């Protein structure tokens, strides 16, 4: 059974588990419909950059799941940062998704275009736009993605209240204790992407031993580890059988010893290379440029 976390700032209930999407590895229409219709997924995460918002519109409609039962999250790409451009980008995202409100809208990265003279001012203007979108009822929850402590400290100087969400890479190989502590102290909920480290962690001997002993897959153990720490978790897959497997994490728990063993695996490993993000922001690549057209069935 799906569990939820309540964001205190907005009093909004967010599913603790959902489906991540991206442009890397492709997009499967049938897999998204399967997740919504058959596997009890109630949160979908996407972004303008992934180039799949219009495809998700079709999948959401075909699934037959009522709009109010799907917590829809998308993200603002840095080339759209700024007060007016953020509002325009939000409306455009809603149009692509075929909805009249977003459940969650996030700043995708703290970085801005290199041509920007004052990135701090641009981030501030962007955040004020997000707050106005929330106040206008176009967005229920506003937050950030990939922000580190110093980025969040800057925001606290001008935000009406801290961002409700910080979406970060989170798995046993990437367990940023200091950042998590900072977020907890300021009421910022962690949302974790890449809970399987793009498959890197699945052959870890500690993870595999625990999985074998509890009768679950290494992927299920890694996802369960994340959920038991109260982190909103969004594994990605384009395979129906994996989507079902990833969702079967509610009727069992890891014991304290196993949790401690997995906590000890942190090695500051990033499946997503932050060092190349600035170049990607500055390069005029089309949204969804990595999508595998063989999987584009929607």
Can you tell me about this structure?
GO terms for molecular function: oxidoreductase activity. This is NADP-dependent oxidoreductase domain-containing protein. InterPro entries: AKR, Aldo/ket_reductase_CS, NAD(P)_OxRdtase_dom_sf, NADP_OxRdtase_dom. Keywords: Oxidoreductase. Pfam families: Aldo_ket_red. This protein is of the alpha/beta class. The protein is 38% helix and 15% strand. It is built from eleven helices and ten strands. The protein has a domain of 195 residues: NADP-dependent oxidoreductase domain (TIM Barrel), CATH 3.20.20.100. The longest helix is centred in the middle third of the chain and has 17 residues. Helix 7 crosses helix 8. An eight-stranded parallel beta sheet has the order 3-4-5-6-7-8-9-10. Strands 1-2 form a two-stranded antiparallel ribbon.
- According to DSSP, the number of beta strands is 10
- Name the structural class: alpha/beta
Instruction: Classify the helix fraction into a percent range.
Output: 25-40%
Q: Report how far the terminal alpha carbons are from each other.
A: 28 Å
The quaternary organization reads as single chain
Low-confidence stretches: 293-298
| Total count of helical runs of at least 4 residues | 11
What CATH architecture of the domain at 16-199 and 229-239 do you see? Alpha-Beta Barrel
Provide the spatial order of strands within the biggest beta sheet: 3-4-5-6-7-8-9-10
Under the CATH scheme, which class of the domain at 16-199 and 229-239?
Alpha Beta
Overall geometry comes to globular
What is the H level of CATH, i.e. the homologous superfamily of the domain at 16-199 and 229-239? NADP-dependent oxidoreductase domain
């Amino acid at each position: 059974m799906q569990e939820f976390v309540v964001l205190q700032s907005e009093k909004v209930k967010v599913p603790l588990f959902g489906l991540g999407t991206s442009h890397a590895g492709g997009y499967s229409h049938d897999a998204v419909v399967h997740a919504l219709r058959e596997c009890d997924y109630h949160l979908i995460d996407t972004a303008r950059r992934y180039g799949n918002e219009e495809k998700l519109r079709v999948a959401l409609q075909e699934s037959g799941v009522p709009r109010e039962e799907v917590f829809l999250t998308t993200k603002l790409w840095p080339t759209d940062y700024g007060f007016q451009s953020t509002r325009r980008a939000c409306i455009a995202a809603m149009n692509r998704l075929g909805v009249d409100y977003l459940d969650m809208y996030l700043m995708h990265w703290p970085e801005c275009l290199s041509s920007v003279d004052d990135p701090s001012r641009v981030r501030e203007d962007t955040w004020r736009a997000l707050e106005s979108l929330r106040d206008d009822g176009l967005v229920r929850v506003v937050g950030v993605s990939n922000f580190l402590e110093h980025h969040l400290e800057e925001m606290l100087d001008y935000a009406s209240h801290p961002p409700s969400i910080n979406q970060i890479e989170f798995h046993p190989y990437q367990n940023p204790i200091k950042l998590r502590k900072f977020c907890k102290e300021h009421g910022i909920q962690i949302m974790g992407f890449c809970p399987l480290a793009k498959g890197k962690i699945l052959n870890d001997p500690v993870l595999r031993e625990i999985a074998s002993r509890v009768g679950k897959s290494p992927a299920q153990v890694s996802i369960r580890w994340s959920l038991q720490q109260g982190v909103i978790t969004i594994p990605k897959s384009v395979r129906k059988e994996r989507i079902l497997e990833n969702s079967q994490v509610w009727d069992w728990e890891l014991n304290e010893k196993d949790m401690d063993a997995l906590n000890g695996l942190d090695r500051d490993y990033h499946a997503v290379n932050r060092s190349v993000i600035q170049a990607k922001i500055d390069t005029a690549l089309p949204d969804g440029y990595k999508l595998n057209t063989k999987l584009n069935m929607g």
